[in-house]
Amino acid sequence: MNGKFDADKIDALVDARNGRITPLIFTDPELYELELERLFGRCWLFLCHESQIPKAGDFFNTYMGEDPVIVTRQKDGSIKALLNQCRHRSMRVCHADSGNTRAFTCPYHGWSYGVDGALKDIPLEDRVYPQGACKEQWGLLEVNRVASYKGLIFGCWSDETPALEEYMGDIAWYLDGVLDRREGGTEIIGGVHKWEIECNWKFAAEQFASDQYHALFSHASAIQVLGAQPDDEGSKKLGAAQTARPVWETAKDAIQYGQRGHGSGFFFTEKPDANVWVDGEVAQYFRDTYQEAKERLGEVRALRLAGHNTMFPTLSWLNGTATLRIWHPRGPNKTEVWAFCICDKDAPQEVKEAFERSATRAFGPAGFLEQDDSENWVEIQKVLRGYKARQSKLIVEMGLGNEKVREDGIPGITNYIFSETAARAMYRRWADLLMHEKWADVEKATEQFEKELV
Ligand code: FES
Ligand SMILES: [Fe+2]
Predict the structure, then answer these.
(1) What's the gap in Å between 95 CA and the centre of ligand 1?
(2) If you take atom 4 of ligand 1, which residue's CA is the nearest one?
(3) Torsion angle, CA of 169/170/173/175, rounded to 10 degrees?
(4) Radius of gyration of the chain measured on its C-alpha atoms
(5) Dihedral through CA 351, CA 354, CA 355, CA 360, nearest 10?
(6) Mind telling me which residue stretches traverse the membrane in this protein (predicted)?
(7) Is 219 marked active-site?
(8) Residue 113 Cβ contacting ligand 1 at under 6 Å
(9) Is 211 a catalytic residue?
(10) pLDDT computed for residue 270 by the predictor
(11) What's the confidence (pLDDT) of residue 239?
């Protein structure tokens, strides 16, 4: 390994056993380059939802790390992911966010590729390549592996990484709480909100994995305004005074899960109560579909209508709120947020619209909860511009030593919801990935870390 960070130095950046991390992991350009190569170059990354490319010739433009990638539906119904980079001189061959096409034609000199990535046409081919062009070798580069999980499409550049479901591990159980509530599965409603925030991607990914704690304080005013006593039917009225006891006092249980970089947190409530900020139609829909969800997923996940989650590294979602997002890295100091509204395909149209309204109001680019969150991350990034600020270690110690494996079917390494188990696991996984060239060594290191926990 070249540069100032060898494996031992990276190891020392994340002292998860004592709950300390070095701020450099959020600021250093060399570490960022290593992330692009070893983390984004090897992990399974979310690309788009199958509902966004239903027909042959449909495409959706996204990124894997900083690499632009076109996801396309082939004639035979299969899905390919292609590097959006002309083989001639690197121009982007497709600029639209999404659409349907028979060809991707490069706007620079007009080379034209099929939706399978094959190079079909070179303008004036006989004149510019009198000896003949190697068209069959000059197709768009293809992402090595593409796989779907219950409607979500993922891509992976490495052949060494385990299959998608193995990579997901127990986070799949948590994700099913969104993807598998009803027979018809899910779909994406409307377009994708995209905006930039001036902070490292890990602040966002970590918070969705591990940080319910901030909500007590950062979102206190918003929750107070929206908080309401359930009326007799159990519905909630927006704007009513907050008189109920806080959920962390009333919940039957409160759980954080964190393992292999993934993380999740939720309160275990007794009724299918939706978040206080969703429209009444959404709350009613959850009550109406509770029985079906319970039959499919069991009581815990059917009741789990609030909760935060990250599938390592950059896919996050909130149960009940219908926001699913990806944190595209844009250098150590910047993140491009892409927020999708996901909901059950079989939901009535007016409920889908209510989901979209609710998600946008709370977690759209100007969402009142989103603003609270990004304000924190952006300010931290500014603080870390200071030299002194980068010398002290951050304290990631909450709940250290209290990790356990439960016996009630809630899987994985868990802790009390207000802990930093998932953050420690995420940064440890981050370090393991950056340190080791072979995936087998990454796994070995992660397993060793987990063995010491439980
Ligand atoms: S860069 Fe695409 S045709 Fe030249
Ligand atoms: Fe938040």
Answers:
(1) 14
(2) 109
(3) -70
(4) 23
(5) 160
(6) none
(7) yes
(8) no
(9) yes
(10) 84
(11) 42
Average pLDDT over residues 319-325: 94
Specify the pLDDT at position 2.
Answer: 58
With a cut of 80, say whether residue 229 has pLDDT above it: no
Query: Which amino acid does the sequence have at 128?
Result: V
Strand partners, 194: 338
Looking at residue 240, what is its pLDDT? 41
Cβ(296) to ligand 1 under 6 A? no
Q: Which of 88, 109, 253, 346 is catalytic?
A: 109
pLDDT tens by residue, 87-130: 999 999 999 999 999 999 999 999 999 999 999 999 999 999 99
CA of 316 to the centre of ligand 2 (A): 12
* Chain centroid, CA 14 distance in Å: 22
Using N-to-C axis directions, what is the helix angle for 368-383 and 201-210, rounded to 10°?
Answer: 130
In this structure, the dihedral spanned by the alpha carbons of residues 157, 160, 165 and 171, taken in order and rounded to 10 degrees, is -80
Residue 101 alpha carbon to ligand 1 centre in Å: 19
Integer angstrom CA distances of residue 433 from 193, 200, 261, 347: 30, 18, 10, 40
Long-range contacts of 359-364 (CB under 8 A, 24+ apart): 359/321, 359/322, 359/323, 360/193, 361/277, 362/275, 362/277, 362/278, 362/321, 362/323, 363/318, 363/321, 363/323, 363/325, 363/339, 364/193, 364/339
Minimum-distance ligand 1 atom for the alpha carbon of 87: 2
| Per-residue tokens: 228 | 């309401």
Question: Residue 125 CA: which ligand is closest?
Answer: 1
141 CA → ligand 1 middle, Å: 14
Domains located in the chain, CATH noted: 45-148 (2.102.10.10), 171-453 (3.90.380.10)
The string of pLDDT tens digits covering residues 185-213 is 999 999 999 999 999 999 999 999 999 99
Q: What is the pLDDT of residues 297-311, one digit of tens each?
A: 999 999 987 899 999
